[in-house]
């Protein structure tokens, strides 16, 4: 009888370990929650207006400085393809202060650095306040927009 309990206990422990491994694997493969912030300050889950794309972005430096150039590192993911890097798309990035009815005084340089990955250099918010960053994603002559409001101090 002791032998039976020992073997049964080992089986239960093995099932528990396998269940834990499965749950960890499933969590690691999941798409980030919309609007969440990942470690390192990467903004994730920003969706295009039609939900077709997910935009992850990070500013360098963070937080965004006033009247100093900064970089935005952008990754565009295909929501319909399990969050894989978006292929055959173009990206443009702009920003504005809607309450002041003006945009930036400087045009940024946008460079694709990999599949679904862009580096936007020379962004410049010349004054503090409420800004909106626009991520326009083009595929097959259709433009989809993801946007986010941020406050710059």
Give a structural overview:
It is a single chain. The chain is globular and about 60 Å long. It has one helix at 2-28, and strands at 37-38, 42-47, 53-60, 69-78, 84-85, 90-97, 102-103, 109-114, 117-124, 129-139, 142-152. The protein has 153 residues and is of the alpha+beta class. Residues 18-40 have low confidence and may be disordered. Helices cover 18% and strands 48% of the residues. Strands 1, 2, 3, 4, 5, 8 and 9 form a seven-stranded antiparallel sheet that branches. The longest helix has 27 residues, at 2-28.
Please describe the topology of this protein.
Blueprint: H1 2-28, E1 37-38, E2 42-47, E3 53-60, E4 69-78, E5 84-85, E6 90-97, E7 102-103, E8 109-114, E9 117-124, E10 129-139, E11 142-152
Antiparallel strand pairs: 1-2, 2-3, 3-4, 4-5, 4-9, 6-7, 6-10, 8-9, 10-11
In short:
With 153 residues, the protein is an alpha+beta fold. 18% of the residues lie in helices and 48% in strands. The model is unreliable at 18-40 (pLDDT under 50).
